[in-house]
Amino acid sequence: MSPVTTRSSRSLDWPTLLLYLVLVGLGWVAVYAASYSPDAPAHPLSTLPFGELMAFNWFKQLIWIGTAVVLIGILLVVDYKAYDTFAYVLYGVMIVLLLITLVVARPIAGSRSWLEFGPVRLQPAEFAKFTTALAASRFMAGINLRNQNWRDQAVLAGITLLPVALILASNETGQALVFGALLLAYFREGMSPLILLLLAAGGIILLLALLVPKLWLLGGFTVILLAAFALNAKLWRHHLILSISVWVAVVGMVFAVDFFFNNVLHPYQRQRIEMLIDPGKDPLGKGWNVTQSKIALGSGGWLGKGFLNGTQTKFDFVPEQSTDFIFCTVGEEWGWAGCLVVIALYLTLLGRILFVAERQKSVFGRTYGYCVASILFVHFAVNLGMTMGLAPVVGIPLPFFSYGGSSLWSFTILLFSLLALDAHRKQDLLR
């Protein structure tokens, strides 16, 4: 073993590695339970031929885990300076891959987002989060967002939104939405909180436009605005034009919702929003997934039904239970206690990543660490929200738990690139 490799392994953040191994291990157990059938002729100790074992998700997930271990070794051996040096190159390669995917990928479940290499399918959108985080971190390492330089902020927005546009063009709305998580990292590095507030206010207005009749919404907003003017006369003299502009913008947004909802969104996207607003509208049709998911979660009680004893799981009531709805298996078989343990593990991992990010000696390392934490947090929060009916079903996997090679590889690359940077953080002072 070389001195560099030895030094890297000694400096590796072992608590984060342990949390990763525990989550991946529990995830494999959940995938096995979700794909288990009493009539299946295979189990982890089966001696069936390789070709027959490949028909089972749990076996394929084992292979992905094995390749992820190899990937970890590569990420830790690669010179840590390469992540910074080749950030833009990797970003450019991924943009080209996203473009190629749009052209050559065949439609699967309504989207063109998978590149196929024989029996292996990879989703470039998963890896685009890693390359975009690298490129954004490299860019922010050379600027100061606190200076409120709008040109720099426009470039940063372009770096973030270019892959988003390509992913949206491939009809992968859920993956595109995850890139919004990077705003949290940008905010840490000095981006104006006004941008976050404006985006949050816009999101609230759009949501209210779906839930509340337009006349009520606009009437209420107008009354609030007039009341503010009545209570503070200075608003008339100093902020009248601004207030009118805000009112016009809100009116435009409210009336644009109908057009966007009916003419821009695909039918399945409208259905997801409708089910989020009124889950009981069509429980046996459009709302089947979420309805069965909540039944599975609630039926486990405090301690669960036991490993491989979940009826919702065993009889395939919940579609996509190995991927998007893997947390249902946790709730049904491990109970609320098991759910709390899994949630605690994720929150501990997120806290550890933030700790690692804050101790970086370079702006690049710190920013990248916050990008990793933000991406994992949004995946975790939205996936759990999907299974509980608190968020629309947008096809976002649960990190390290959901079945799939692209998902496991992308999250592994995100996390262990950060650990590679962290293992050499003291050397940044010498650069």
From TrEMBL:
Gene Ontology molecular functions: glycosyltransferase activity; lipid-linked peptidoglycan transporter activity
Membrane association type: Multi-pass membrane protein
Cell membrane in keyword set: yes
GO cellular component terms attached to this protein's record: cell division site; plasma membrane
Keywords assigned by UniProt, alphabetized: Cell membrane, Cell shape, Cell wall biogenesis/degradation, Glycosyltransferase, Membrane, Peptidoglycan synthesis, Transferase, Transmembrane, Transmembrane helix
Transmembrane region(s): 17-38, 58-78, 85-105, 154-187, 194-210, 216-233, 240-261, 334-355, 367-394, 400-421
GO biological process per UniProt: cell division; cell wall organization; peptidoglycan biosynthetic process; regulation of cell shape
Compartments where located: Membrane
NCBIfam families membership: rodA_shape, RodA_shape
PANTHER family membership: CELL CYCLE PROTEIN, PEPTIDOGLYCAN GLYCOSYLTRANSFERASE MRDB
Protein name, UniProt field: Cell wall polymerase
Organism whose genome encodes this protein: Hymenobacter ginkgonis
Gene that specifies this protein: rodA
